[in-house]
Design goal:
heterodimer, A: alpha/beta, Rossmann fold, Alpha-Beta Plaits, 2 domains, 4-stranded antiparallel β-sheet, B: 13 helices
Chain lengths: 303, 248
């Protein structure tokens, strides 16, 4: 069976600005994938290409084995977009009922409303919903057609903690039925907690692609912390495996690919190590490391 | 087709619930009819009573308003708010969407025609033969098609800020210059010329001819068909431009 999403050397330019350049990626069916990146990294552009809302400047985009527009027209794909107002003058239930009739094998209206947590306000006109309720109504619309592939573009923007938990509970339930889910986010904890796989975008390029654990390992992997008086930064940076050193008084924090070798070498070098701790880099550190590795083209061109 | 019908049905429901729709397309035409027929109702106007001719004028005025305003500003606002973008990621095709909107505009013109006619029958005891009624109701209802196309065009051509005012100016302008508020016969020469060039006079003439026992004028039908073609082409042009700008 063909992959859910395939990008081959995809480039998207808006005038002189390259929103995406040379993006290759493939998402298998059944995966839950986070598209992670800071604002302006190209997440929404990538989602727009996957939905056929835009055409790539170069390269090919294949969705469920064919063009994106064909997958959308066939009702195999649905999406929750970032900026899409609901239609005023109808109730949530009426809107969901309308959307589901467009799809070949939809969920029942009641089921879509229930999964999205809209049952309590199903009869309310959409113009009288709170921000969080409107977002849940958008979620109900997105799943009403029971699509094979679901796109969510920054879905929890404007949610409080409780609503966010409820939302991801609904998504997990949806994904558990074998559906492919791809969501764009800049919330690291969501990517870490929900996705099987994380694709990190930075300035229009894929800078990392793998499980949350693999991405954490990729960027220096582990963190070694200890206290030692009178040790300079340069000396620590020469220790094996170390990619980054932070000094705060006598506290040192080393990012390293090989913590055993780093610690052994530190002892061997006669550094008086106290209060040694070895831990995993968290995803945020990994993410920041990845994002900061990328040269800024604006600085490179001297602007 | 299933999507077209589902969207049409939802659009009709939300339009008839809309306060502005009720005011402009039912309240004003019926109100104007009752007011002006009370003021001038006793004056004979040619062979037919003023109350009959003005009933036709207000049927046309209401139906035209429904056809124009049910898209117009509302379509512009939905475009600006991203609803059309959301629809594009569903199986509903853009062509089905635009056609559903135009069909909706023609559908919601019907209650306006019927209610003014009902006011004529109940309040002023307007009495017409079956052929005259059929000609009047069918002509004024289906003759609203060019204005439905114009409403879609304006919904795509204007942004949500300017669309409401723009549509109202066009609506009142066409109504006055079409002889719907004041009879064509009392207009100055320049306005009569404008009336013969613009669509609303030819539109209402379908109804005026019907109540006078005449067949629909080919000239009126031809001019309305030409305006339909022009407005639909303009709507298609603005629609494609909007798509190209939004989704390049």
């Amino acid at each position: 069976m063909s992959d859910a999403v395939v990008f081959a050397q995809v480039e998207k330019r808006f005038g002189a600005i390259a929103a995406l350049s040379g993006v290759d990626l493939s998402i298998r069916r059944g995966e839950t994938v986070a598209l992670l990146g800071p604002n302006g990294a190209g997440k929404s552009t990538a989602v727009a290409l996957m939905l056929g809302l835009r055409e790539p400047t170069a390269g090919t985009v294949r969705i469920l084995g064919g063009p994106a527009v064909a997958a959308v027209r066939a009702g195999r794909v649905a999406a929750m977009l970032q900026t899409a107002n609901l239609l005023p003058g109808v109730s949530v239930a009426e809107l969901v009922e309308f959307v589901r009739t467009l799809y070949p094998h939809p969920l029942s209206t009641a089921r879509a409303l229930e999964v999205a947590g809209c049952t309590a306000f199903a009869r309310r006109p959409v113009e009288r919903l709170s921000g969080g309720q409107a977002q849940r109504a958008r979620f109900a619309m997105a799943i009403a057609g029971d699509p094979e592939l679901l796109f969510l573009d920054e879905p929890t923007t404007g949610f409080d903690v409780d609503a966010r938990r409820h939302f991801w509970h609904g998504i997990r339930g949806f994904a558990a039925s074998g559906r492919t889910v791809l969501f764009a986010t800049h919330y690291l904890e969501e990517a870490d907690a929900v996705a099987d796989r994380i694709i990190v975008l930075q300035r229009g390029r894929v800078v990392a692609d793998g499980s949350a654990a693999a991405i954490k390992a990729h960027s220096g992997g582990r963190v070694v912390r200890f206290q030692a008086a009178g040790v300079d930064r340069a000396r620590c940076a020469r220790l094996p495996g170390v990619s980054q050193v932070e000094v705060d008084g006598d506290r040192l924090r080393l990012r390293t690919a090989d913590p055993d070798a780093t610690v052994a070498a530190a002892y061997a070098a006669g550094i008086s190590v106290r209060g040694l701790e070895i831990g995993g880099a968290d995803l945020e550190e990994a993410f920041l490391a990845l994002v900061n590795e990328q040269p800024d083209p604006k600085e490179a061109s001297g602007r | 087709m299933k999507g077209f019908i589902a969207y049409l049905w939802m659009e009709i429901r939300r339009t008839v619930r809309n306060g502005r729709y009720l005011t402009f397309t039912i309240g004003f035409p019926v109100g104007f009819y009752l007011l002006f027929s009370a003021l001038y109702g006793r004056e004979p106007a040619g062979g037919l009573s003023f109350t009959t001719l003005y009933m036709v004028s207000m049927c046309a005025y209401g139906a035209m308003g429904a056809a124009l305003t049910s898209n117009g500003a509302r379509l512009a606002a939905e475009r600006g708010g991203g609803w059309t973008r959301q629809l594009r990621v569903t199986p509903l095709t853009p062509a089905a969407y635009v056609l559903a909107r135009m069909t909706m505009a023609v559908c919601v013109a019907l209650p306006a025609v019927l209610l003014v006619a009902l006011a004529g029958v109940l309040v002023h005891h307007v009495h017409l033969g079956a052929a005259a009624w059929l000609g009047l109701l069918a002509g004024i209802w289906l003759g609203s098609v060019p204005f439905a196309a114009l409403g879609v065009f304006m919904g795509y051509a204007l942004d949500s800020e300017s669309a409401y005012g723009g549509v109202m100016i066009v609506y009142f302008g066409l109504s006055i210059l079409g002889g719907l508020w004041f009879p064509y016969a009392i207009m100055p020469h320049g306005m009569q010329l404008a009336a013969r060039i613009l669509p609303a006079y030819h539109y209402a003439s379908l109804g005026w001819n019907a109540v006078a026992g005449h067949a629909p004028g080919w000239r009126n039908l031809g001019i309305l068909a030409a305006y339909t073609a022009v407005f639909a082409a303009a709507a298609a042009w603005r629609y494609r431009r909007d798509e190209a700008r939004e989704y390049a």
